[in-house]
Amino acid sequence: KGRRAAGAIDRGGAAAKGKLIIASVCGTERDAPSRSAEAAALRAAGVLVAESNARAARLAARAIEKGNGNA
What we know:
flat, mainly alpha, 48% helix
């Protein structure tokens, strides 16, 4: 799913348009594809990948507070 999401993000050009995209990835290295592969695909598409969903939420809140949400 992450690679499909990364492809959609990349095709949408959100990162290139200055949009901030924050995500976290669930799963393990034993999953197919692995957690690290999913995170790498998202990072390659310009996504800021946090280590946990809680961290992703804090980063998003901080971005909004600072006016970097580009909503």
